[in-house]
UniProtKB/TrEMBL annotation:
Any one of the GO BP annotations: AMP salvage
Catalytic reactions on record: AMP + ATP = 2 ADP
Name of the protein in question: Adenylate kinase
Binding locations of ATP: G10, A11, G12, K13, G14, T15, R128, T137, F138, Q196
This protein's record includes keyword Transmembrane: no
HAMAP family: Adenylate_kinase_Adk
Pathway: Purine metabolism; AMP biosynthesis via salvage pathway; AMP from ADP: step 1/1
Lineage of the species this protein comes from: Bacteria, Bacillati, Bacillota, Bacilli, Lactobacillales
Length: 213
């Protein structure tokens, strides 16, 4: 099976990806892992990516696309199939992926799209607080400190503040929607309700993937 997994930050994509890989024995390809492996193995694209990263520059799309193509051409993908996680991030990358898969003779069979109301994700992502003295992390709703805790003893990172979280989600929605539309037009998207217990979400994914097998 050759799959993509998509969803906004905080939707539980990483958790579900790990479960899919374990249950269906496909190769998990995440962008970060790919970059690290390409640089460690000193592949042509890995060395090119390193030259940008070392200068503190953003890695251009053509290099990212090249690293993905290099990875998809490897033997384990032919044997097991893949679950691509964290790519494509833009519609241009989606078109590049289409082209790479076509050139490699690989068919994309499904896109798992984990959906959660963005307002709920703001609550989920902006609830993180950190204890000033110990650095221990808590969540105001899901994992609060002891009852009656003093808020002055805790702080929030800038990234975790509601305004920052909303902005991050808005950017992700703007970038992600054209990609979802692109794959939906190809009949590949399977929407999964993400605001459920982790095991229930996975059971829904399992039903979809069992039909694709």
């Amino acid at each position: 099976m050759n799959l993509l997994i998509m969803g906004l930050p905080g939707a539980g994509k990483g958790t579900q990806a790990a479960k899919i890989v374990e249950k269906f024995d496909v190769v998990h390809i995440s962008t970060g892992d790919m970059f690290r492996a390409a640089m460690a193995n000193q592949t042509e694209m890995g060395l090119l990516a390193k030259s940008y990263i070392d200068k503190g520059d953003l890695v251009p799309d053509e290099v990212t696309n090249g690293i993905v193509k290099e990875r998809l051409a490897q033997e384990d993908i032919k044997e097991k199939g893949f679950l691509l996680d964290g790519y494509p991030r833009t519609i241009e990358q989606a078109h590049a992926l289409d082209e790479a898969l076509k050139n490699l003779g690989i068919t994309l069979e499904g896109v798992i799209n984990i959906e959660i109301d963005p307002a709920k994700l703001v609550e989920r992502l902006s609830g993180r607080i950190i204890h000033r003295e110990t650095g221990e992390t808590f969540h105001k709703v899901f994992n609060p400190p002891a009852e009656g805790y003093d808020e002055k003893d805790y702080y929030q990172r800038e990234d975790d503040k509601p305004e920052s979280v909303k902005r991050r989600l808005e950017v992700n929605i703007a970038q992600g929607q054209p990609i979802i539309d692109h794959y939906r037009a190809a009949g590949l998207v399977h929407d999964i309700e993400g605001d459920q217990d982790i095991e229930v979400v996975f059971a829904d994914i399992e039903k979809v993937l069992s039909k694709l097998q």
